[in-house]
Amino acid sequence: MQAVGIVVEYNPFHNGHAYHLEQAKKAAQADLVIAVMSGTFLQRGEPAMVDKWTRTKMALSGGVDIVIELPYVYSTAPATDFAKGAISLLSAVGCNSFAFGSEDGSIQPFLNTFELIDSHRAEYDLFIKDSLKTGASYPKSLHYAYEQLSQMYPAPYIDLAQPNNILGFHYLEAARALNSNIKPLTIPRVAAGYHDALKEDASIASATGIRKALASTNSLQSVQNVVPTATFDYLTDWHTKYNQFASWETFWPLLQFTIIRHTPSELTRYAEVTEGIENAIVKAAKNSSTFYSFMEKIKSKRYTWTRLQRMITHIYTGFTKKQLQSFNAPSFIRLLGMSSTGQAYLGQQKKNIELPLISRVAATNDAMLAIDIHSAELYNLSIEQGTKDFTLPKDYQTPPIRC
Q1: Which residues participate in ATP binding (predicted)?
Q2: Is 8 annotated as a binding residue?
Q3: In a domain, 262, yes or no
Q4: Is 16 annotated as a binding residue?
Q5: 189 annotated as ligand-binding
Q6: What φ, ψ does residue 184 adopt, rounded to 5°?
Q7: Any known ligand binding at 94?
Q8: 402 contact partners, CB below 8 Å, separation of at least 6
């Protein structure tokens, strides 16, 4: 059986994702689709709007055959490590190819871009260093270095100012670094840009646009046209139970407490917290009534909003620099859900899968998995605050979802 892999967050699963699934399967001529999906906290440093089990159900309803979890160590990492973790898992589970959505929509410019940077690494690194000296952020310095190189060696390249192109480039980079035979494919994004707001009468919108619409209108009907029926039903069920979707704004009381209970120097233990920002974080937390006002106080030219959110995520979950440095690669494959086709594939490929396949975590002693379980418990705690019943699935008790 031929499997195509995709890297997803499904926050939430929408009509654009359904299109991507269909096109990926067709382009790869695959028998099934395997999705590696972020767990409870995401790459932009924020909690997923609904938990991983609900998003797994959305994925399976939408046509994914196997859902595996991207561990916290990688799901909350900068793009390079995020891609490394995801492609490692897709390769280990036996995918013949992987497909990603991009603004460019053609694979050759990605290959050209990879060869450009790989062949001129010393010049690229020097341009980055020069830009950083001016006070520019690291992402802006990367873009500056790329622009300089692409002008020196003209060819059809991708636009690395576009978020999905950036991730696509890092997926290619990861596959090459792993010496993997997994074949890259890209599917053009349709109708909605990454940050576009929801448009009236649209049938496709970005996940960001959907979340913004829900936050501003508090009406599920505002997004009904841009998500599959199953997604709408799962979102409705979640909102009925908890009366809110997860966000740093809803987590703010516990996040604020977590920050304030530390001294500034203690904060520097946590992953991605660089010296110099810790005092500002504690001061802002003491003087902010909302997460947004807190972020407005600490953002600067040096630190992007996303980078700050990842720092905050690690402070909230207690994920330290020492822990981060102890991991080099994924050590397991965590199965979250599967269709009958997915189950047949796993039965067929069982002996060829390169990492331990975990379906139940209770008997598993793995440091990376322990972090996933811990982060899920903290996520659940924030959602269930103020409710009478603890109804969110617990990792120790939840088997893979079958459909």
Answers
A1: 7-20, 101, 164, 189
A2: yes
A3: yes
A4: yes
A5: yes
A6: -85, 140
A7: no
A8: 337, 338, 339, 340, 343
